[in-house]
Amino acid sequence: MSDRIDVRKTYKLYVGGKFPRSESGRSYEVTDRKGHFLANAAMGSRKDARDAVVAARSAFPGWSTATAYNRGQVLYRVAELLEGRRSQFVDEVAAGEGLTTRKAEAAVDEAIDRWVWYAGWSDKIAQVHGSTNPVAGPYFDFSVPEPTGVVAVVAPQDSSLLGLVSVLAPVVVTGNVAVVLASEERPLPAVTLSEVLATSDVPGGVVNVLTGRTTEVAPWLASHMDVNAIDLAGAPADAVTELQVAAADNLKRVVRPEATDWARTPGPQRMLAFLETKTVWHPIGV
Amino acid sequence: MAVAEMGSKKFDYAPAPESRAIVDIQPSYGLFIGGQWVDPTDGHAFKTISPSSEEVLAEVSEAGPGDVDRAVKAARKAYDTVWSKLPARERGKYLFRIARILQERARELAVLESLDNGKPIRESRDVDVPLVAAWFFHYAGWADKLDHAGFGSSPKPLGVAGQVIPWNFPLLMLAWKVAPALACGNTVVLKPAETTPLTALLFAEICQQADLPPGVVNIVTGAGDTGRSLVEHPGIDKVAFTGSTEVGKMIARSTAGTGKKVTLELGGKAANIVFDDAPVDQAVEGIVNGIFFNQGHVCCAGSRLLVQESAFDEVLESLKRRLSTLRLGDPLDKNTDIGAINSLEQLTRIRELSEVGESEGAARWTVACELPDKGFWFPPTVFTGVSQAHRIAREEIFGPVLSVLTFRTPQEAVEKANNTPYGLSAGVWTDKGSRILWMADKLRAGVVWANTFNRFDPTSPFGGYKESGYGREGGRHGLEAYLDV
Fold it and tell me: In this structure, what DSSP letter does residue A18 have?
């Protein structure tokens, strides 16, 4: 055995393209499935959540008006970087989820391919889910999907990378911005993903990643009046109703949690959940 | 130079040539069949030249019927054994790879395209090559989303596609053909035009670089006979052709009764319609872009300018002033606006039709500019006093020649615009939104540009009405051409 002392890393939040510590000054221990220490992660607070929403909101105008082609390019580049971090993700997923290396590899591969799948939707969703409407009159009438705004994402608790990618990518590909609350006990893939995003072309603030106690932070996101939608994929069963009630204050669009096999190729539902439809009328005549 | 002297001197551009050192052109090329470079067994060799200098760039193989047969068999084998069995998303990832390599080798492709085709580097660099990569990115994403494209669940590919493309946008037309075909799960045999084979051959190299399975893309060079062997080969399931209406009709006849799916993107004689409320400066930019982009070698070029009578003088004066600032010359010079005509044959046709225009009574106006000694050149030319009966108003010239007609009412503009066997594109210039949409409703054309012209995007379907062909390329609609639906 080597005498060398390993250099241990401090895991922080990812807000507005930067890596701040929690303003609360708190952290918590992350362990593998057998209870061995893996790392200390920041324990995000209400204030961190509010900072993340502000950062997300300020990134929304730029990201939502980027061309679909540009967003697709930026997200595809993220997939290239994910591939470069493949072995790190495999280690983290294996340790956090208690998977064999082979199963962890399968989950990571699926996560990278899932990211590519969603990247490819950027310039297609409008063509598949927009329309021209044959109204009975001399009007040109068309409907286009537009991003709803700031989306809070309570990431799945079990599937720490594949589940995370499966709820995050559909939010941002269409031009929304996200505040992600990572899996409470398995936050490391989310932190690594934030490092990937920080070195990619995704503008700061488009994705913000918080770690901490789900039951502490999620209610502040659910009730925040500048959050437009919330995905409750990883919300604890006994908190779901309460979070939906809080979300009703400004009529957030809500995706309710349901049992999901994250390995299956999804449909467009998670993208559509965070899209508004805008219909435009224009007269036709000389 | 003293400041006083500068006051009277006209500034000119210094030469700004793009280096051609980035391109490594081989002295001779074989055919790309089954992932390998092979010599033609029953064909010959021909030379491809740079139309701006007449310099020989390389010797290229002419594929005979036996070579085409080998290519079709290689494509079939790749379809049966590899490509049709590959999960859709893996197919997509190959296309993403190709897209990335196209971006990484963009400068090389642009320089080679300008050398072989004669188009200005500004266009090959800023239009052709970026669109080529975008096309592959777009269709890469479709490969595993065909279930969502509106053609029923699990739509099936056709099999082997035979694709024949023209010389005006050599690499871009390749992308329009190859990207959707592969995304839908087909394999292809592609024949580039005989005067512009080099970027297609470089693309073959890119397929190797991307580790694309052998036989998925096969490239056979040659002229019309090679194209005919491919189109008439019984082993292909699909014919995709971009080129002249004349050849398009021949293909429609020769594929009759075969069961091959056919899409044709053919000629055009687009009307670019300018109303008197249009912002003149913008309209003039659009007119120039419409007919002088790519030396007018554009099937959707706005070759007929229809100007509302009340705006005629102002538009024409402004147009001539603008044309006088265009720079004609070395395609590799970054300041060049107008490059070389692609071939002597095409130059001859442009000259002939221009002479016919004069002899039929139209007034010819040509920009006063020096033409280089070597190569094929034709200065931007405008005909006024053109009637609908004139050949220059009816026939596709495919060169930098604009025919100007006038109209008084929107109805008259529509009648004149539609008075053509073609129906590929049209342009409308007016400040009034409702009139744009009224015109768009009435125009029998596959693409209508309003207050813009010659815009292309991988998400936007493109193709013609009437004798401009059938089928659409681009976007979700473009998938239909390569699916069994």
Answer: B
